[in-house]
Amino acid sequence: MSEKSARTPTDRTAERRVCVIGWPVDHSRSPLIHNHWIAEHGIENAVYEKLAVPPEEAEETLQGLDARGFIGANVTVPHKETAFAAIPRHDKMASRVRAVNTLVKTDEGWEGRNTDGYGFIANLKEGAPDWQKNKPAVIVGAGGASRAVIAALWEEGVNDIRLINRTRLKSEKLAGDQGIPLLVVDWENRNQALPGAGLLVNTTSLGMKGSEPLDIDLSGLSKEAVVTDIVYTPLITPLLEAARARGNPIVDGLGMLLHQAVPGFEAWFGVRPEVTPALRKLILDDLGQKED
Ligand code: ATR
Fold first, then answer.
1. Concatenated DSSP letters for 176-234?
2. At 288, is the secondary structure helix, strand, or coil?
3. What's the CA-to-centroid distance between 1 and ligand 1, angstroms?
4. Are 240 and 227 within 8 A, CB to CB?
5. How far is the CA of 121 from the centre of ligand 1 (A)?
6. How far apart are CA 181 and CA 204, in angstroms?
């Protein structure tokens, strides 16, 4: 091979490069997940890396992925909304949620997708296959994660959604943006939203290591209702612990993280990967946690 044709760091055409873009990005487990699948499927010349991008450079970076040789990307906090604005083509979920977590280079150009809701539903179905979608779902929180969860539940056919948030205005904005008829519940009345529900979801960071727990009284909740949390550090949050103690089925949040990665990997590398116990253990070990 002549020196001229040897691959240099700037000639990356032979590589299938993908990255996760965030700020900070060090905490992201996406490289662990995708590199596990890359190795498992023996995908050659594939590289998945972290790209730390400050907010003032986010738009330019997102629009310049081609020039850097990327064929895809994940987008994490705080750039999901910027990605939605910077990339004009969206899939249905990204349009609903108005945020993008997965970028795919297609024949028609870059497309922004949102797979967070898919990850939520896949995790719920795996952890609680008997979950009753004909009963009301109660969602706590009205941030980005809540948008994805609500859009996915709605697409799944759940048409009675009660939304509890500390700031009522944010719930109302979410309902308006998504065009979904939600029942907006004031924070003070949160316990009263539980009777009759088939599902309770915490989408806030309350209960995360270092945060205060979600203060909610579960006594009005049916024991058949599934309780799930998007927080996965700790794996069993105080909410899940309380629900489990009274006999409710619970689903921890780690599976959402794992499942949301599946559609991106499939789009970039043409293989649908699986969420296996080995992958779950890999991430749990990295988080310094054990199965409960
Ligand atoms: P994300 O995009 O990860 O969902 P976010 O947009 O910051 O994060 O949303 C955080 C959610 O947690 C919000 O619903 C927030 O409530 P407000 O809309 O009132 O801010 C909720 N939240 C955070 N800390 C809270 C607390 N101490 N008590 C009640 N709700 C809290």
1. HHHT---EEEEGGGGGGG-TT-SEEEE-SSTTSTTSPPP---GGGS-TTSEEEES--SS
2. coil
3. 56
4. yes
5. 21
6. 21
Tell me the CA end-to-end span of the chain in Å, nearest whole number.
54
Quick check: helix, strand or coil at residue 74? strand
Instruction: Find the 253 Cα to ligand 1 centroid distance in Å.
Output: 17
Which atom of ligand 1 lies closest to the CA of 142? 14
- 267-278 residue pLDDT tens: 999 999 999 999
Residues with CB under 6 A from ligand 1: 141-146, 165-167, 170, 203-206
Reported pTM: 0.94
Rounded to whole angstroms, the Cα distance separating 39 from 230 reads: 28
pLDDT tens digits, 125-162? 999 999 999 999 999 999 999 999 999 999 999 999 99
Retrieve residue 190's tokens.
Answer: 């949160």
Q: Is 206 exposed, middle or buried (0-12, 13-18, 19+ CB in 10 A)?
A: buried
Neighbours of 218 (CB within 10 A): 18
